[in-house]
Specification:
Elements lengths: L22 E5 L2 E5 L11 E6 L23 E4 L3 E5 L7 E6 L9 E5 L13 E11 L8 E7 L5 E8 L4 E5 L7 E6 L6 E8 L4 E6 L2 E7 L12 E7 L10 E11 L8 E7 L5 E6 L5 E7 L6 E7 L4 E6 L9 E7 L2
Antiparallel strand pairs: 1-2, 3-17, 4-7, 5-6, 6-17, 7-16, 8-13, 8-17, 9-10, 9-16, 10-11, 11-12, 13-14, 14-15, 18-19, 19-22, 20-21, 20-23
């Protein structure tokens, strides 16, 4: 994959845009999400910046061909295609795009960003969520590039990057430790529309990423170098794999939003793994590094029994419910518990 200025699987059926909620219930054969705290605009949440790139918000009409960096305070570095299109996401009006038209030969990157300068965490709101609808549209000229989302602090330091490598249709991430990109174990589909959510806890120096509700990056440090823990911008990046031979692939994105959530920690996500050879139910909990979580079970949503607690060293917990064969049906939830 191409690694440059930003620091050095999904199957085809995952097409629906899902929402992430603070409590996740699971039962054999299906997932049930209970919305106890909205991660859109919930009670007490503060929207730092949001746009749908619509004319009603002050953007030009897509037909006018105005580059994104001339709209609503957006900035850019580099050259190449970047502007607005209409109805590429049916029902969503206008979208922004990055790529397609080749940059100047000297340029290997095109980066666009909208500064919003989030100060150090507000009291009671250390968790900030970036979310965006996105699609990586494939090349037709047999040249394939990378498209990235990179978070920066108010000192202009890159904190971390999520990379969509279109030559492999695979997802990577990089921290600020100069260790390069690491494979997440997940891929993406060029025909699919995804909701990307990046959850950041600036008080605890943790972040995680979800795509259509599936955790693709488990809890990682926002900074490994002691950089300032705040947020200036989340950049869209087109990284050309071969200088002078850009692909005509491009990144579409819409519903770009940054929200300071009224939550003390990043909500845990409970994932169904399956049933083992003894008929016992297996779950995978995704949470923050260094926090303690409980997994509870119920048959009727009235009485909940705590099955176990665990402090996560690396942000994950593979749990087997040895009591599950005794239940006709069982529902599970994950929750953060204080030490």
């Amino acid at each position: 994959m191409n690694c440059g200025d930003d620091g050095t699987c999904f199957g085809n059926d995952m097409r629906r845009v899902l929402r992430l909620f603070s409590l996740c219930f699971a039962m054999i054969g299906q997932s049930i999400f209970a919305q106890s705290t909205s991660h859109g605009v919930g009670t007490g949440d503060v929207v730092v910046y949001a746009t749908g790139f619509e004319v009603a918000e002050g953007y030009s009409h897509a037909d006018e061909g105005v580059p994104l960096w001339e709209e609503d305070g957006w900035l850019a570095e580099g050259s190449g295609g970047c502007g607005l299109v209409e109805d590429f996401f049916p029902g969503y009006g206008q979208q922004a795009y990055l790529g397609y038209s080749p940059p100047a030969y000297k340029d290997e990157f095109l980066t666009v960003w909208r500064p919003f300068d989030v100060a150090p965490p507000l009291p009671g709101r250390p968790v900030v969520m970036f979310e965006v609808l996105m699609q990586v549209v494939d090349s037709t000229n047999h040249e394939y590039d990378d498209f990235r989302w990179s978070a920066y602090n108010t000192d202009g330091q890159r904190l971390f990057t999520l990379d969509f490598d279109n030559s492999r249709a695979e997802i990577f991430y990089a921290l600020d430790d100069n260790a390069g990109f690491k494979f997440t174990g997940f891929g993406f589909d060029n025909d699919a529309l995804y909701q990307l959510q990046i959850m950041m806890n600036f008080e605890r120096n943790n972040w995680m990423a979800l795509l259509n509700g599936q955790v693709v990056v488990d809890s990682q440090p926002i900074t490994t170098t002691g950089a300032r823990l705040d947020l200036s911008d989340v950049d869209a990046v087109w990284a050309i794999r071969q200088k002078g031979a850009a692909g005509d692939n491009y990144l579409l994105f819409d519903e770009y939003r940054v929200t300071a959530l009224s939550l003390p920690t990043i909500p845990p996500v409970l994932e169904i793994v399956g049933i083992d050879s003894q008929g016992q139910f297996e779950l995978l909990l995704h949470g923050e590094r260094g926090l303690k979580y409980a997994i509870d079970v119920t048959e009727d949503f009235v009485k909940w029994d705590s099955l176990a607690t665990n402090t996560l060293a690396d942000g994950t917990w593979l749990f087997t419910d040895t009591t599950s064969p005794s239940y006709q049906k069982s529902f599970y939830r994950a929750r953060h518990v204080s030490d």
